[in-house]
């Protein structure tokens, strides 16, 4: 998104306002004003009130522009282009239901069967009917957290295991995977990006921008999307969508949601076959030998170098198709107090494809001595 200067709807300069009011009073009254006079105190109050009014006008004007807006005004701007804010959704996990013994007949586990942790901190509800067939012991079904947001994420396998209101005696249930994909309401910054992309959605998803817009609209944890087609070596009519999330690789459930949403009849051109796929992960490492000036504090300077390396690695993790350039990294490591950074890894520039994701697996900042500057 191209940076634009903040617009000035009204000029706010309290000193100029005060000077103008004093000049008007002196002209109309025919006498000079001095700082200690009661009239000056009154004028100061008027100037202060006028400055506040102008600041309010400036703020209101800015909020009518997407780039400088915030909720709830931003939500009204989104409505103008048919792009509502994505609301919080609950975490999702498969649950394994196990009977104590083989069943003599089919046993129904109805939709909205409730499973909680032992302390009741979170509860999950099944999303569809499930049946343990006659003679069988178990069935697996997907469930969603009752409370929207991140609260349902990250629970250990088997930790959500208290079945509320057993459909039949001897039935037990627990999560067979770590719950994921729970997320809070869409942030203002991410919502702004989708509003600006919204005109791409006025046609079916034929362009890269349109596919990107629709993929970002599936789930607010998606922070970047790469779109590949025939010009990237795929067969004619085939489109590959590669979403990247806040935590890195998307889950299988999220890929399923993206593919299902983008394959809708009203979203894709008739002949497109849409596939949601993982980004191409590139594992890389940072290893640098740092020589300090003799006057630099070793501990704090090396900590600053470590922080600079972590920030660079995080910037690359936050997008797709960002090349790894050693010269850029070395420039970041040259913080105050560093005489020389001898970069061992990465050994050379790594050019990533459009759907490539640079994931730094380790950072090693090694002290190589000090020199007199």
Task: Give an account of the 3D structure.
29% of the residues lie in helices and 26% in strands. It has 373 residues and is α+β, with helices and mostly antiparallel strands. The protein folds into four domains: 1-63, no CATH class; 92-175; 203-276, GMP Synthetase, Chain A, domain 3, CATH 3.30.300; 280-371, no CATH class. It has a six-stranded antiparallel beta sheet with strand order 7-3-4-6-1-8, with no helix packed on it. Helix 1 (14-29) crosses helix 2 (38-63).
Q: Largest beta sheet: what is the strand line-up?
A: 7-3-4-6-1-8
Name the structural class: alpha+beta
Shape call: extended
C-alpha end-to-end distance: 42 Å
Radius of gyration: 30 Å
**Total domains:** 4
Roughly what percent helix? 25-40%
Number of strands: 14
Low-confidence stretches: none
Q: Give the strand content.
A: 25-35%
Order of helices and strands: HHHEEEEEEEEHHEEHEEHHEE
* Average of pLDDT: 92
Report the biggest beta sheet as strand number plus sense, adding barrel if it closes: 6 strands, antiparallel
Q: Tally the helices: what do you get?
A: 8
Summarize the structure.
The chain is an alpha+beta fold and 373 residues long. The protein is 29% helix and 26% strand. The protein has 4 domains: 1-63, no CATH class; 92-175; 203-276, GMP Synthetase, Chain A, domain 3, CATH 3.30.300; 280-371, no CATH class.
Features:
373 residues, alpha+beta, GMP Synthetase, Chain A, domain 3
Summarize the helices and strands and which ones pair or pack.
Blueprint: H1 14-29, H2 38-63, H3 73-80, E1 92-99, E2 107-109, E3 114-117, E4 123-126, E5 130-132, E6 138-145, E7 160-164, E8 171-175, H4 188-197, H5 208-216, E9 222-228, E10 238-245, H6 252-262, E11 273-276, E12 280-293, H7 298-317, H8 326-333, E13 338-345, E14 356-371
Parallel strand pairs: 10-11, 12-14
Antiparallel strand pairs: 1-6, 1-8, 2-5, 3-4, 3-7, 4-6, 9-10, 12-13
């Amino acid at each position: 998104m191209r940076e634009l200067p903040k617009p000035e709807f009204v000029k706010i300069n309290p000193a100029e306002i005060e000077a103008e009011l004093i000049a008007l009073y002196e002209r109309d009254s025919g006498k000079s004003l001095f700082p200690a006079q009661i009239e000056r105190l009154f004028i100061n109050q008027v100037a202060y009130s006028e400055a506040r009014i102008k600041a309010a006008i400036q703020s209101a004007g800015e909020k009518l522009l997407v780039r400088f807006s915030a909720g709830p005004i931003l939500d009204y701007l989104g409505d103008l282009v048919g792009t509502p804010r994505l609301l919080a959704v609950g975490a999702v996990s498969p649950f394994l239901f196990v009977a104590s013994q083989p069943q003599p007949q089919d046993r129904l586990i109805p939709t909205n069967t409730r499973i909680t942790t032992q302390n009741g901190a979170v509860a999950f509800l099944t999303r569809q009917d499930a049946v343990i067939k006659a003679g069988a012991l178990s069935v697996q079904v997907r469930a969603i957290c009752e409370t929207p947001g991140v609260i349902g994420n990250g629970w250990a396998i088997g930790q959500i295991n208290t079945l509320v209101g057993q459909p039949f005696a001897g039935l037990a249930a627990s999560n067979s995977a770590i719950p994921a994909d729970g997320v809070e309401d869409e942030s203002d910054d991410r919502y702004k990006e989708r509003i600006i992309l919204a005109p791409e959605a006025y046609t079916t998803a034929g362009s890269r921008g349109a596919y990107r817009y629709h993929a970002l609209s599936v789930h607010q944890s998606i922070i970047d999307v790469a779109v590949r087609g025939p010009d990237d070596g795929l067969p004619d009519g085939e489109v590959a969508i590669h979403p990247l999330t806040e935590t890195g690789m998307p889950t299988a459930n999220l890929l399923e949601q993206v593919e299902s949403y983008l394959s809708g009849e009203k979203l894709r051109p008739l002949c497109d076959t849409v596939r949601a796929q993982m980004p191409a992960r590139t594992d890389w490492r940072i290893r640098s030998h740092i020589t300090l000036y003799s006057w630099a504090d070793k501990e704090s300077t090396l900590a600053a170098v470590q922080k600079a390396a972590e920030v660079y690695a995080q910037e690359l993790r936050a997008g797709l198709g960002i090349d790894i350039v050693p010269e850029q990294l070395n420039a970041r490591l040259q913080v105050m107090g560093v005489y020389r950074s001898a970069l061992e890894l990465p050994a050379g520039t790594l050019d990533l494809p459009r759907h490539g994701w640079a994931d730094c697996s380790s950072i090693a900042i090694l002290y190589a001595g000090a020199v007199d500057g």
